[in-house]
Amino acid sequence: MAMEQVPNGVRSISTQAVRNRMKSVKNIQKITKAMKMVAASKLRAIQTKAENSRGLWQPFTALLGDIPSVDVKKNVIVTISSDKGLCGGINSTSVKISRAVHKLNSGPDKETKYVILGEKAKAQLIRDSKKDIELILTELQKNPLNYTQVSVLADDILKNVEFDALRVVYNKFQSVVSFLPTMSTVLSPEIVERETESGGKLGDLDSYEIEGGETKSEILQNLAEFQFSCVMFNAVLENACSEQGARMSAMDSSSRNAGDMLDRLTLTYNRTRQASITTELIEIISGASALEG
Amino acid sequence: MSSNAAVPFWRAAGMTYITYSNICANLVRNCLKEPYKSESLSREKVHFAVSKWIDGKPEKPTIRSDTGAQ
């Protein structure tokens, strides 16, 4: 505590500094509590949306599969993060996973690029991967998230980036306190065809009948585009949901910390006050007894 | 399916399946009666900023808003 603030000649210890500190801690606690409330109400709205959107990508995974180990030349990592901070480690997690995926998929004749969603991953990835950034998208959450927005966004990514495989990295919402860093892989139509011919997981795709006059490659292109927008929609929602959940628990623990701090400060404050009272009493009594004696 | 015949045309116009399906979805939304129509139209708002990076340098970000959607 800053004791030098006490003016000269004052003998008792000033409690001013402690009182100021207590006031500011109390204010911070109020703010974090309010932020927690806001995050909680936003979470509830977005959680149902995110859970409903899971039905969108599941049929695609059943049909086209999700093959994270696929070996292709042009990889694009789509890192999803939030625009705002104060939400624990979810942004660092998705950046870390993206870096790991980048490392795994880099080789002499391979090309791996980043597409970044959100300010926070941008700030972290600019530092060391400037050369590999292809596209940055921000300000997603001005309006409540909806499919039209995400599909326009997915469209922009498809038009601006050349890829053989898109790897979408995001935090999957599991509960308010646990988020699973997840990677979804979307293959380009050519790669899907290649994989179908070589058998393996996608070998069953040939057994589907195709209606109408379209060729298989046309259908696959449409499917791949639609799959990407659906996967993106789910990923963005899941990540937003995780963000709110993480913010809620982070704000909860910081209000608890502020409470602890306030308790300690109150204790110090009371002790100091008591000490000064005791000193004064001693002075008075000893003065009185000196006069008597 | 009548839409099958349309595929080559919107592909030739440089649209992706996503753009095409968005236009179709918007048509369907416009067919709704009030108040559902304005409600569903106001729900689907588009807003985000895109900036392309070339050789480690960002280009000027462009804002994609409602007008740019269709």
From TrEMBL, chain A:
It is found in: Mitochondrion inner membrane. Keywords: ATP synthesis, CF(1), Hydrogen ion transport, Ion transport, Membrane, Mitochondrion, Mitochondrion inner membrane, Transit peptide, Transport. SUPFAM superfamilies: ATP synthase (F1-ATPase), gamma subunit. It comes from the Eukaryota. GO terms for molecular function: proton-transporting ATP synthase activity, rotational mechanism. CDD domains: F1-ATPase_gamma. The keyword Ion transport applies. It is a peripheral membrane protein. GO terms for cellular component: mitochondrial inner membrane; proton-transporting ATP synthase complex. Belongs to the ATPase gamma chain family. Mitochondrial membrane ATP synthase (F(1)F(0) ATP synthase or Complex V) produces ATP from ADP in the presence of a proton gradient across the membrane which is generated by electron transport complexes of the respiratory chain. F-type ATPases consist of two structural domains, F(1) - containing the extramembraneous catalytic core, and F(0) - containing the membrane proton channel, linked together by a central stalk and a peripheral stalk. During catalysis, ATP synthesis in the catalytic domain of F(1) is coupled via a rotary mechanism of the central stalk subunits to proton translocation. F-type ATPases have 2 components, CF(1) - the catalytic core - and CF(0) - the membrane proton channel. CF(1) has five subunits: alpha(3), beta(3), gamma(1), delta(1), epsilon(1). CF(0) has three main subunits: a, b and c. This is ATP synthase subunit gamma, mitochondrial. It comes from Senna tora.
Automatic annotation (TrEMBL), chain B:
Transmembrane segments: none annotated. The keyword Membrane applies. CDD domains: F1-ATPase_epsilon. InterPro entries: ATP_synth_F1_esu_mt (IPR006721), ATP_synth_F1_esu_sf_mt (IPR036742). GO terms for cellular component: mitochondrial inner membrane; proton-transporting ATP synthase complex. GO terms for biological process: proton motive force-driven mitochondrial ATP synthesis. GO terms for molecular function: proton-transporting ATP synthase activity, rotational mechanism. Keywords: ATP synthesis, CF(1), Hydrogen ion transport, Ion transport, Membrane, Mitochondrion, Mitochondrion inner membrane, Transport. Its main location: mitochondrion. Signal peptide: none annotated. Mitochondrial membrane ATP synthase (F(1)F(0) ATP synthase or Complex V) produces ATP from ADP in the presence of a proton gradient across the membrane which is generated by electron transport complexes of the respiratory chain. F-type ATPases consist of two structural domains, F(1) - containing the extramembraneous catalytic core, and F(0) - containing the membrane proton channel, linked together by a central stalk and a peripheral stalk. During catalysis, ATP synthesis in the catalytic domain of F(1) is coupled via a rotary mechanism of the central stalk subunits to proton translocation. F-type ATPases have 2 components, CF(1) - the catalytic core - and CF(0) - the membrane proton channel. CF(1) has five subunits: alpha(3), beta(3), gamma(1), delta(1), epsilon(1). CF(0) has three main subunits: a, b and c. Belongs to the eukaryotic ATPase epsilon family. This is ATP synthase subunit epsilon, mitochondrial. It comes from Senna tora.
